[in-house]
């Protein structure tokens, strides 16, 4: 290996480890969100029962329960938004990994001498390039979706 190839390999491994760590963090957060969803649902059920069985409860107490229920709904909605963002991030990581693998394959074909390439090699190179362009387009679409979400939230 030349120094350049070793550097490329090292950088590819580092990028892969970063993606792996990010994927683990996302998975942990998704699990936390799921637990929080369950807790919010249990709290909501209790508040709904209190509101239904309001026999003789002061109006202030009923208002407080209603406000708590609305707060739980807002919290659940914000968690759903975060979960949606995380799912987009998961898709983006998958596409990024695909892109790196395709880049590596394409580089191996492109590093060969043109005179040594068979027609099958040339065809495979073109197919990999087409797949790579498709992945880049999909990543671009995800970024566009994220940007539209941010703008709509503002």
UniProtKB/TrEMBL annotation:
GO MF entry, a single one: monooxygenase activity
Organism for this UniProt entry: Calyptomena viridis (Lesser green broadbill)
Cellular location(s): Membrane
Stretches of the chain forming a coiled coil according to its record: 23-50
Transmembrane segments: none
Pfam family, any one: bMERB_dom
Matches recorded under InterPro entries: bMERB_dom (IPR022735), F-actin_Monoox_Mical (IPR050540)
Keyword Metal-binding: no
UniProt cross-references to PANTHER family, sorted A to Z: [F-ACTIN]-MONOOXYGENASE MICAL1, CALPONIN HOMOLOGY DOMAIN-CONTAINING PROTEIN DDB_G0272472-RELATED
Main localization, broad class: membrane
SMART domains: DUF3585
Upper lineage: Eukaryota, Metazoa, Chordata, Craniata, Vertebrata
Domain BMERB: 13-154
This protein's UniProt keywords: Coiled coil, Membrane, Monooxygenase, Oxidoreductase
Protein name as annotated: MICA1 monooxygenase
């Amino acid at each position: 290996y030349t120094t350049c190839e070793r550097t490329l390999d090292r950088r590819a491994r580092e990028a892969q480890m970063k993606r792996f760590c990010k994927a683990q963090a996302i998975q942990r957060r998704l699990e936390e969100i799921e637990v929080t969803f369950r807790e919010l649902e249990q709290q909501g059920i209790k508040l709904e029962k209190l509101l239904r069985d309001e026999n003789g409860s002061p109006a202030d107490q009923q208002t407080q329960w209603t406000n708590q229920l609305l707060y739980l709904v807002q919290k659940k909605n914000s968690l759903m938004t975060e979960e949606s963002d995380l799912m987009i991030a998961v898709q983006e990581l998958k596409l990024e990994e695909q892109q790196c693998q395709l880049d590596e394959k394409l580089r191996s074909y492109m590093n060969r001498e043109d005179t040594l390439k068979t027609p099958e090699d040339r065809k495979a190179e073109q197919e990999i390039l087409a797949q790579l362009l498709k992945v880049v387009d999909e990543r671009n679409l995800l970024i566009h979706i994220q940007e539209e979400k941010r703008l709509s939230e503002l």
